[in-house]
């Protein structure tokens, strides 16, 4: 398993495609799977369009509408971040072929920060040969 860290903004989508792609290429796996896992309860990971930055902004706006800041019971005051993390999810799996991530033309991998700024970890497990 590989891992890397990143410093995040208060909230946002951070394109980590290049970092994950680099780990896949270094691994020399010709065919298999790449599992990306975020070990945090107020962050997530997703695949979405990486050609237009407005898509990430739209995703954040939609999540803010779905999960408004209300009087939640969790005392830390970051319940919306926990809910958004559960909605987005903490892991994705991407196929690997010929030592490359098999993403669609417009797809990228995004770390989703909902309770920053923080120093976060991303775990990458490569399966195959």
UniProtKB/TrEMBL annotation:
The cross-references to Pfam families, in alphabetical order and at most eight, read: YjbQ
Q: Indicate the family of this protein.
A: Belongs to the UPF0047 family.
Report what the protein is called.
Answer: Secondary thiamine-phosphate synthase enzyme
